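Quick review question:
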């Protein structure tokens, strides 16, 4: 039961961190790694799944807003404008930056608004999000391994 709660909590925090709500999934992941009760690959899968699903919600919101006249004005915020410029400049490959703070979450909404094919979106965002967690896990393992 304890493991289920830990995984559910990590999933929820990772999901929220991918939306425009503030949350620190990296801190939660590292905290669970430091407890040393849960397999790193399972934590990687859970955090990645939650974070990617949160990005999929952003994509859907972006798609909905772009298709709904009443809500188009919501895409004019400062961060969304910056993300849209970035997205238009670098194209779909900018989704590899979806893990970055500040611009990453709006980028995923802009991808939906600009009608990036969902399969392409899913692959690139999954690579970015899972890659970030994989680097965190590797750094944690290297740091723990370096202590006597």
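Suggested answer, residue by residue:
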């Amino acid at each position: 039961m304890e493991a289920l709660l830990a995984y559910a909590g990590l999933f929820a925090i990772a999901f929220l961190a991918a939306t425009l709500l503030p949350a620190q999934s990296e801190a939660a992941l590292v905290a669970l790694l430091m407890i040393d009760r849960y397999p790193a690959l399972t934590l990687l899968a859970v955090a990645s799944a939650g974070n990617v699903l949160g990005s999929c919600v952003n994509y859907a919101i972006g798609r909905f807003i772009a298709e709904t006249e009443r809500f188009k004005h919501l895409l004019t915020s400062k961060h969304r404008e910056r993300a849209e410029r970035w997205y238009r400049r670098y194209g779909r490959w900018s989704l590899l930056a979806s893990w970055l703070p500040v611009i990453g979450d709006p980028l995923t909404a802009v991808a939906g608004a600009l009608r990036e094919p969902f399969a392409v979106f899913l692959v690139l965002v999954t690579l970015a999000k899972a890659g970030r967690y994989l680097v965190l896990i590797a750094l944690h393992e290297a740091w723990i391994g370096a202590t006597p």
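Why it works: The first helix runs from residue 2 to 18. Residues 65 and 71 are 5 Å apart (CA to CA).
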